[in-house]
Automatic annotation (TrEMBL):
Residue ranges of the annotated DNA-binding region, renumbered to this chain: 37-56
Residues annotated as domain HTH tetR-type: 14-74
InterPro entries: Homeodomain-like_sf (IPR009057), HTH-type_TetR-like_transc_reg (IPR050109), HTH_TetR (IPR001647)
Highest rank taxon of the organism: Bacteria
Protein name listed in UniProt: TetR family transcriptional regulator
Keyword line: DNA-binding
Species assigned in the record: Streptomyces ambofaciens
Pfam families in the record: TetR_N (PF00440)
Length: 205
């Protein structure tokens, strides 16, 4: 029996999705979320509006998938590779602090905060988003490795991951409200150094 060469015909691929999400990113960076339309996205992506509507009901769902892709890329890119003599706790702490710096500098995050900050409120006040769920999974796995090598304080990994995410999320979203760049002890860098201390102390056995 010959394989059906058209079995996946018409099904969106990861590459197709990335093309659309790249188009959404370009639109949002140019005009913000509220002024982005499905027509704009379709034109930039080189697809029809109906193609978009078959996968996403509206611009906000598109932006939600875009944020998930971008934030997970930031998080995974911030985690240092394993090195001899370096315990998991040190890698987790370094990855979280580096990730916050990268997240706060990310053009998409900066645009949303400046133009459409209300888009972030549901994920702070009401519910977890897909990116938060993925980050919790990454954190729980990393903390579990730390439990195994003895570098992280033993605790329920899910509870510990949620607690750590609450800490780093507050720094990621609210750091600029607490900084005073004219005071060397209250700069962004100084507060991130304090975050490093907080994480080290809460995760040290």
């Amino acid at each position: 029996m010959t394989p059906n060469r058209h079995k996946n015909a018409g099904r969106p691929t990861a590459s197709d999705n990335d093309t659309v999400l790249d188009a959404v990113r370009d639109c949002v960076l140019a005009v913000g979320v509220r002024r982005t339309t499905m027509t704009d996205v379709a034109r930039r992506a080189g697809v029809s509006r109906m193609t978009l509507y078959r996968r996403w009901p509206d611009v906000r769902s598109l932006v939600g998938d875009l944020m998930t892709r971008e934030w997970i890329a930031v998080a995974t890119g911030a985690i240092p590779a394993p090195r001899p003599g370096v315990g998991t706790r040190s890698r987790v702490v370094e990855g979280l602090v580096t990730g916050i710096e990268a997240f706060r500098a990310h053009p998409l995050f900066r645009k949303i905060v400046d133009v459409d900050p209300e888009l972030l409120l549901p994920y702070v006040l009401d519910r977890r988003g897909a990116s938060q769920e993925a980050l919790l999974e990454l954190l729980a796995d990393a903390l579990g490795e730390g439990h195994a090598d003895g570098s992280v304080r033993p605790a329920h990994p899910g509870r510990q991951a949620r607690s750590v995410l609450l800490i780093v999320q507050s720094f990621a979203l609210s750091l600029r409200t607490m900084t005073d760049e004219d005071d060397a002890e209250l700069t962004s860098a100084a507060l991130l150094t304090e975050l490093r201390t907080i994480l080290e102390r809460t995760l040290t056995p």
